[in-house]
């Protein structure tokens, strides 16, 4: 397999992507990593020794910046690392792309370059959450690509997410829920109610409405929502996680006794294990589901290790035959999911940035 | 002050409310607690000794159950503890009401009995979050009363929340944000964009868009959103909190060594301090802002201690002159906030259940 890595995307680019790409290439001699970016900036970062033979640089002179308007920047910067990278995938020169850039821009790039899988109305950003049961992971989508959704979009997110969890997390029959403000059917909005009606007619294992806390319980493995709510949930979870750690530190410092320090020291390995479980860096990034090609968005703050893991996720996804399975599932879903007319402007509308 | 306590509301009613009411009455001999509920059920719970002289029971034969349709149940059950309790406040026999019942039903009851403060379009449920800075608390509203909001509703939530944080949390000039899926002005939905435009013209300290994580950082003290998103955020935060604790326990058990057990033991006081900070029981419940009277919703799972603290919050709120301040601020806001026509069905529409 050949994996494209956007060397210029992310808060710590090009340093972190280059280092992560080298790590991955050394660990996977049977596969190839293509670093796409400014050769003059990337080359010095490869270090003194000989770079791995399965790593090469593909020059691209421009960069889509984190604060650029996603689709506009992607269109204007024709030689951006993101665009050139996606074109390599589109033209069959590579099997997957990883970028730690602005997720809106990566999705816009994927839509404009690769397009959508047959029958997919709106590709979605899928985010993995740590869960206490059920395989230890749950998937939330859309996590931010589509602010404005129709019921059929949510139903398709369910189909895409179910296939991903089945193939990638090994859950035989993932349970699917619609995120709402309560479990009773009378709750929710017109969007959640109509999406639930569609999903009740599906062949998925549909749990009905679920609440934010169910993401972490593991009782459901796939949770669908619009991209506005999904993004708010994602950022809230990050906030609580950081907040809990910060509050614990404050509590320890405030007491400041020897026993607290010793306790923190003794718990260090367990806390490190916890951090690994909730750390985005371990997850391998957020897959973009529904594009005609494998794309993974790594967190903007990605460390080399996070980039390494995102490449691993991209490799596993490409090898799992996910694209074929997604296409098959979306086609099957036509039996219960009415198809909507896709306007010509669909590509633009699908990207919020 | 005389405080009404709904003895029949909550998962552990009437036991927990009665016990919490007795606790509060004993601790506050200068104030009075009125337990509203079924005398036959409440009386035996008062214990053997003489109940405090400042605690009395007011009989009500019916109960609004947790799974009742909120406004329908409130209308039909004319002798429910919730309705009778609100009528005591409405008729000037009490200064505030506390209930651990269904928050939708409590809000519906408040709207149907007390009505709204002059100029208020939609009263909101306000939820307190623990924050690392800025006074240690932030306020999110609406946390679930109004699923379907207009921009002017969000702007009024900001006015109500700002006054609450100023008077109750002692923050001199609270900073206000609109919850969105990113900080850039291009993000958000039509609702968040129009609400932000209104708030930019206000005399509030407006921070623009904020993300879920900002609730916990303390950089803003008031965060406004629609009741659907707000409720999802509230439940997600509860889920992460429980999830982190559960994951830590799993990590400790999995390693299971002596040092982990000793570490957990030594950290016990710090962890207990942390639990107090994030525990809803300590907060004193969620105030209903914009009603013509003081109403507090305690968590459904409230312990006697949580009920005790909610009564304390109700007392402090009634003493702080919050209602007068809210009325003044809503009237002042008319200078920058266009008033909308209020339909006759406003009371119904405002309650989601």
TrEMBL record, chains A, B:
It is found in: Cytoplasm. Pfam families: FA_synthesis. Signal peptide: none annotated. Keywords: Cytoplasm, Lipid biosynthesis, Lipid metabolism, Phospholipid biosynthesis, Phospholipid metabolism, Transferase. Pathway: Lipid metabolism; phospholipid metabolism. It comes from the Bacteria. SUPFAM superfamilies: Isocitrate/Isopropylmalate dehydrogenase-like. One of its GO terms (biological process) is fatty acid biosynthetic process. GO terms for cellular component: cytoplasm. It catalyses: a fatty acyl-[ACP] + phosphate = an acyl phosphate + holo-[ACP]. Its EC number is 2.3.1.274. InterPro entries: FA_synthesis, Phospholipid_synth_PlsX-like. Its main location: cytoplasm. GO terms for molecular function: phosphate:acyl-[acyl carrier protein] acyltransferase activity. NCBIfam families: plsX. Homodimer. Probably interacts with PlsY. PANTHER family: FATTY ACID/PHOSPHOLIPID SYNTHESIS PROTEIN PLSX, PHOSPHATE ACYLTRANSFERASE. Catalyzes the reversible formation of acyl-phosphate (acyl-PO(4)) from acyl-[acyl-carrier-protein] (acyl-ACP). This enzyme utilizes acyl-ACP as fatty acyl donor, but not acyl-CoA. Belongs to the PlsX family. This is Phosphate acyltransferase. It comes from Myxococcus stipitatus (strain DSM 14675 / JCM 12634 / Mx s8). The gene is plsX.
């Amino acid at each position: 397999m050949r994996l494209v890595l956007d060397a210029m995307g992310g808060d710590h680019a090009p340093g972190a992507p280059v280092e992560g790409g080298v790590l991955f290439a050394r660990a996977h001699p049977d596969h190839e990593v293509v670093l796409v970016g400014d050769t003059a900036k990337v080359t010095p970062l490869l270090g003194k020794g000989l770079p791995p033979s399965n790593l090469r640089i593909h020059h691209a002179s421009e960069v889509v910046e984190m604060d650029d308007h996603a689709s506009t920047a992607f269109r204007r910067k024709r030689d951006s690392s993101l665009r050139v990278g996606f074109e390599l995938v589109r033209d069959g020169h590579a099997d997957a792309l990883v970028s730690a850039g602005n997720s809106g821009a990566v999705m816009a790039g994927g839509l404009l370059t690769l397009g959508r899988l047959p029958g997919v109305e709106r590709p979605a950003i899928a985010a993995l959450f740590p869960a206490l049961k059920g395989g230890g992971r749950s998937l939330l989508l859309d996590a931010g690509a589509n602010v404005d959704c129709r019921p059929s979009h949510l139903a398709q997110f369910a189909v895409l997410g179910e296939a991903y969890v089945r193939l990638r997390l090994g859950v035989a029959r993932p349970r699917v829920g619609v995120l709402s403000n309560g479990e009773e059917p009378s709750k929710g909005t017109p969007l959640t109610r109509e999406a639930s009606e569609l999903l009740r007619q599906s062949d998925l294992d549909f749990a009905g409405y679920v609440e934010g806390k169910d993401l972490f319980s593991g009782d459901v493995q796939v949770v669908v929502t619009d991209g506005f709510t999904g993004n708010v949930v994602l950022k809230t979870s990050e906030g609580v996680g950081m907040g809990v750690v910060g509050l614990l530190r404050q509590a320890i410092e405030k007491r400041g006794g020897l026993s607290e320090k010793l306790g923190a020291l003794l718990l260090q390995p367990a806390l490190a294990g916890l951090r690994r479980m909730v750390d985005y860096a371990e997850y391998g990034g957020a897959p973009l589901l529904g594009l005609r090609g494998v794309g993974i968005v790594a967190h903007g703050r990605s460390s080399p290790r996070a980039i390494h893991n995102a490449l691993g996720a991209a490799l596993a996804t490409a090898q799992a035959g996910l694209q074929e399975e997604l296409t098959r599932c979306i086609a099957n879903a036509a039996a219960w999911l009415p198809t909507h007319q896709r306007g010509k402007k669909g590509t633009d509308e699908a990207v919020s940035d």
